[in-house]
Design goal:
With 308 residues, this protein is an alpha/beta fold. The protein has helices spanning 2-24, 29-32, 38-48, 60-63, 68-75, 90-97, 125-134, 144-150, 154-160, 213-229, 242-247, 249-261, 289-307, and strands at 53-58, 78-81, 106-110, 232-235, 240-241, 265-266, 274-275, 280-283, 286-287. The strands form 3 sheets. The protein has a 5-stranded parallel sheet with strand order 2-1-3-4-6, with helices on both faces. Strands 5-7 form a two-stranded parallel ribbon. A hairpin with a 2-residue loop joins β8 and β9 (286-287).
Length: 308
């Protein structure tokens, strides 16, 4: 029995040592190419882009669904698209962005609909990898709910540090894959898929979780704080495939009703941003160049509707 306990202790200590080593090890070469590291570039844009500015906050519905050049040409604003993916969670998107917002900024927040349901707003694997690989200073300010939500992804993260495939070299002058740090343009728009052949698109799953009013509270707090800074905050709607939209119409309508009830400045309606498959690239809310152009023009019209 003592021998068994001794072996168990040795094994446990070895496992713990490997886990700690993986936790604190630097990002792998594969991770360094990830589009999550585009946050560094987007933070630099937020610091250096001059006024007047248009700041976009959201997930991949914005990062892969906007042509900021159209904003610049039509609205005479300097766009900064901070969006990367929804997996970092709405709470992190807002908390990370608020430090960069300045007086006079126009801010558009476009959360995915599922950020208002269940625990999605607290982040998933994308948040864990962001705070451990991209911006370690942020992990100390995560809330209890955020840590609770991302901890199940920790074993896979630690394992990745010992995966030999993560250390496969790639030539720096190769064309970027669709999901790499190099996939974004000077405004922060994801453009690596522009001109590529669209994929077959399946519909999103039906949202089955309960509404999470903390998402509304986070948005309200963000809006109030930004208004005190002298910025204007609008809330927009996720661009979504028609079939996926119809499957989740009741959940989407509930989001719309709650946003309206709490007095947010809303850009258009959810129905306005239903899109045919011909506008989609590889998922129900990742757009082609044609889709990004179409969706951006809709947003321009809705912004102008508030200005007149």
């Amino acid at each position: 029995m003592k021998l068994f306990l001794k072996k168990l202790l040795i094994f446990s200590l070895l496992f713990l040592t490997i886990g700690i080593a993986g936790f604190f090890a630097p990002p792998t070469p594969y991770a360094l190419r990830s589009f999550l590291f585009a946050q560094i570039d987007k933070d630099s844009l937020l610091v250096n882009t001059p006024a007047p500015r248009l700041v976009l906050i959201g997930g991949s519905t914005l990062s892969m669904g906007i042509n900021s050049q159209l904003f610049k040409d039509s609205l005479k604003l300097n766009p900064v698209n901070t969006a990367i993916l929804s997996g970092v969670g709405l709470e992190y998107m807002l908390n990370h962005s608020r430090q960069f917002i300045k007086a006079g900024d126009i801010v558009i927040v476009v959360p995915d609909y599922d950020q208002f349901y269940g625990n999605k707003m607290y982040g998933q694997d994308g948040l864990l990898r962001t705070v451990l690989d991209v911006s370690r200073k942020d992990y100390s300010v995560l809330s209890f709910n955020q840590w609770l939500n991302i901890m199940p992804y920790l074993p896979e993260y630690v394992y990745s540090k010992f995966n030999v495939l993560e250390y496969k070299s790639t030539k720096k002058n190769d064309m970027p894959a669709v999901y790499e740090r190099r996939s974004f343009n000077k405004f922060g728009d994801h453009t690596a898929n522009w001109g590529q052949e669209p994929k077959t698109i399946d519909a999103l799953s039906e949202i089955i979780s309960d509404f999470n009013y903390q998402a509304i509270n986070e948005l309200r707090n963000f809006k109030d704080e930004m208004q005190q800074k002298g910025a204007t905050v609008y809330v927009g709607f996720q661009a979504m495939q028609i079939r996926s939209f119809k499957k989740n119409i009741d959940k989407i309508n509930h989001v719309h009703q709650e946003l309206h009830r709490y007095g947010f400045k809303l850009l258009g309606t959810p129905e306005k941003y239903e899109l045919a498959d011909s506008f989609l690239y590889d998922s129900p809310d990742h757009l082609t160049k044609k889709g990004a152009d179409f969706r951006t023009k809709l947003l321009i019209n809705d912004i102008n509707g508030y200005k007149h």
